[in-house]
Specification:
With 215 residues, the protein is α/β, with parallel strands linked by helices. It has helices at residues 13-26, 38-47, 64-74, 88-98, 110-121, 129-141, 153-163, 168-175, 179-193, 198-207; strands spanning 5-9, 31-35, 52-55, 80-84, 102-105. Helix 3 links the parallel strand 3 and strand 4. It is elongated and about 65 Å long.
Length: 215
């Protein structure tokens, strides 16, 4: 019987424990090691060969994009499944381009998590039904790579002030707009960019290397 070696990386022990349980459901006698931060992940990957890495995208003090790039530089054929609360719409496309084999929401049901682990372990690409739908729409409609290009000039202007931390009252004074108008534009910005709040908006801007002061 083949024993596969896994690395589970997440800063929450309860999440690591749950993933280990799921992995043992798939393989009776796996070798599973744990990491709670990016530095530990890097050290373990340099030292050991893993059949698969299941890791959170948002561990404290860790730049996930840089970490993943480095991991794939050390071990080019490493099978990586991202398991995260972050929106897959925001990050999955770029991560797949980097070389990860799957991106899965922590809100996914256990059966989907098992399927994703099995798929990636077999060296195949895993995308959730929602991500497949988004990627298909992206291909058919030939959407721009930079999501911010979907915004109107006024929406870009408001996005800038949201990113710079301006309050609604400050934006009202700066742009001479009514609060309800600002609220309407904010909803449209979030809808177009598929984000839920200003924090995710800031993450998206960082993803596209946008300096809010230069927008």
């Amino acid at each position: 019987m083949t024993t596969n070696r896994f690395l589970v990386a997440d800063d929450h022990s309860i999440v690591r424990m749950g993933l280990k349980t799921l992995i043992k459901d798939i393989q009776p006698f796996p070798q599973v090691e744990e990491a709670a931060d990016g530095d530990t992940v890097t050290a373990l990957v340099k030292k050991n060969d893993y059949d698969m890495i299941v890791m959170d995208f948002n561990m404290p003090g860790t730049d996930a994009m840089t970490l993943i790039s480095n991991l794939l530089a050390y071990k080019e054929k490493t099978r990586i499944l991202i398991f995260s609360m972050n929106s897959e719409i925001l990050y999955a496309k770029r991560l797949l381009k980097l070389g990860v084999l799957g991106y899965l929401s922590k809100e996914s049901p256990a059966e989907e998590i098992r399927l994703a682990i099995e798929t990636v372990l077999n060296g195949q690409l895993y995308m959730s039904p929602e991500l497949k739908k988004y990627m298909y729409e992206d291909m058919v409609t030939k959407k721009t790579d930079n999501s911010f290009e979907k915004l109107s000039n006024r929406e870009i202007q408001l996005a800038k002030y949201f990113l710079l931390g301006y309050s609604v009252s400050e934006i009202m004074k700066t742009l001479n707009l009514h609060s309800s108008t600002i609220g309407t534009h904010k909803l449209r910005i979030f809808e177009k960019l598929k984000v839920k709040n200003v924090l995710e908006l800031a993450e998206l801007a960082k993803l596209y290397q946008l300096d809010p002061s230069q927008i």
